[in-house]
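Predict structure. Chain length: 200.
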Amino acid sequence: RIIAWPDNATLLMRQWRKWLRSWLVCVAWLCLLSLAGRAQYRFDHWTADNGLPQNSVRDIVQTRDGYLWLTTFDGLVRFDGVRFTVFNKSNSPGIITNRFVNLFEDAHGDLWASTEYGGLTRRHQGRFITYTTANGLPDNGISSLGGDGQGNLLMFCAYRVFRWLDGKFLPADDLRLPVGDAPSDKAQHLPGFSDPLGKL
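Prediction complete.
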């Protein structure tokens, strides 16, 4: 009786088919897992019909207490995941305008909101305070809010950068931003001042 051993080509073909089957099973599992992962995300669309004071939202910040804060031209809005609470000049002492633009939370947990030429509103320990040129703000028109890397507020107004420090708005000349008498549009609208490492 003669026993025939498979030649090398046949062995290689069997190994190749086995490897290919294993690879295809792995790819199929990865595809199924990615589809299952996508199913857990949900998109909700919120409008004035759901409690926003208006449909245009200018900025959004999530504060350390978990709330989402939104700026609109009809008030400052806090969202807890279910309900919107609107803070405006008719229901919140310390707010002098409803036209909010930018938001920033500092290291102390204070929420800062710039307005459309109505100053800068700060939420400190649950109360609102609005700073204008009448009480130390360099200019009522603020282009941007951001941080200095140490959690202090930086704001861009009057073609300069100012820092809130020790209860005062002080020029942040140590940042040495190249801003002249006729700044470009890019220089006027800095989206944020520092990265997580504190670099500009």
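Summary: The two ends are 84 Å apart (CA to CA).
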